[in-house]
Amino acid sequence: MRFLDVIKTRRSVRHFQNRSLSEATLMSILEAGCAAPSAHNSQPWRFVVLRGEKKDALAEFLFSVSREKRYRSFTGFYVNRLLRHSARMIKEAPAVIAVFNAATFMSKVERYFPYSRREILHTMEIQSVAAAVENMLLATHAQGLGAVWLGVPLLIPQELIEDFFKTRDELMAIMPIGYPATMRTVEKKVDLSEHVEFWG
Ligand SMILES: Cc1cc2nc3c(=O)[nH]c(=O)nc-3n(C[C@H](O)[C@H](O)[C@H](O)COP(=O)(O)O)c2cc1C
């Protein structure tokens, strides 16, 4: 596929075939993630690949949070439902990449920045990790596979995420990946005039 066609025909895939992914395919997707640009080349991303029982445990974790009454007031019913949808996608996909911000940019350069400006460093880390996620979504689609960027799990209280992943890194995305069960490669109609201004 031509590169621009890859970009234009990528769509979020939320239903997956019961078919495993080869190690080589997964590695090529992770390599695409690591090839992203990053602030000061800090490469602040960290990827955890979950498969088999570990992946199913993540789905069960999301299911259980979505059922817990004490988190209803935090997440609300609607988000609980989205968490259950996310859990279903994680269960269905053969592999999931959990994407973290390991804050390597912040730790390298924060001493050069006044405290009041440090939030900018965090913003740049998020931008860098987001570029890596988009690279992986495109690399996935270019190989005839599908994926979706799940942000809803970020609403789970931080201490529960830390408990499950045994890390204090900041969760940025959960990406179920697999062979699409349905094809949704219809090009999105983009009205450039809504998003773009030409100055000069
Ligand atoms: C930061 C971010 C968070 C997202 N979170 C979710 C999510 O939690 N659940 C979901 O089904 N899709 C999620 N998506 C996918 C969007 O819904 C999707 O990209 C958007 O509707 C456009 O559709 P497309 O990806 O098919 O072009 C997320 C996308 C982004 C960029």
Give an account of the 3D structure.
By secondary structure, the protein is α+β, with helices and mostly antiparallel strands. The protein has a domain at 3-49 and 97-177: NADH Oxidase. The chain has helices at 3-9, 23-34, 52-67, 72-92, 104-109, 118-142, 158-165; strands at 45-51, 95-101, 146-147, 170-178. Flavin mononucleotide (FMN) is lined by residues 11-12, 14, 86, 148-152, 188.
Helix coverage percent of residues? 40-55%
Our estimate of the beta-strand percent is 5-15%
Question: CATH H-level name of the domain at 3-49 and 97-177... which superfamily?
Answer: NADH Oxidase
CATH architecture of the domain at 3-49 and 97-177: 3-Layer(aba) Sandwich
Secondary structure category: alpha+beta
User: Order of strands across the biggest sheet?
Assistant: 1-2-4-3
- Attached small molecules: flavin mononucleotide
Helical region count? 7
Instruction: Give the total of beta strands.
Output: 4
CATH topology call of the domain at 3-49 and 97-177: NADH Oxidase
Taking all Cα atoms into account, the compactness measure Rg is: 18 Å
> What is the class of the domain at 3-49 and 97-177 in the CATH system?
Alpha Beta
Largest sheet: 4 strands, antiparallel
Poorly predicted runs are none
